[in-house]
Write a structure and sequence with these properties.
single chain; mainly alpha; elongated; about 65% helix
């Protein structure tokens, strides 16, 4: 829709995969360990939220690029490499 000629870009990363699975483990531990349920469930939801951040950033870059092309301007997403050290 925003970039019909571009190849699909969305994909996972290791951080998201590990955070989602670890969040699931913490949720189940919270079910069985009633004394620490609030902390474990809170940590699980925090990990799930954190696992979505890279995806949200990637989607934002795609939307931003697509809207820039619709408006007729060229948008180059920032490169996340570290700057050279002098």
């Amino acid at each position: 829709m925003l970039a019909p000629k571009a190849p699909p870009k969305l994909g996972g990363n290791w951080f998201s995969l590990i955070a989602v699975h670890l969040g699931g483990v913490l949720l189940w531990l919270g079910i069985f360990l009633r004394a620490a349920q609030l902390v474990l469930h809170g940590a699980a939801y925090g990990l799930w939220f954190a696992s979505m951040l890279p995806l949200a950033y990637e989607v934002w870059q795609i939307v931003r690029t697509g809207f820039a092309e619709i408006a007729g301007t060229k948008f180059e997403p920032p490169v996340l490499d570290s700057p050279p050290v002098n």
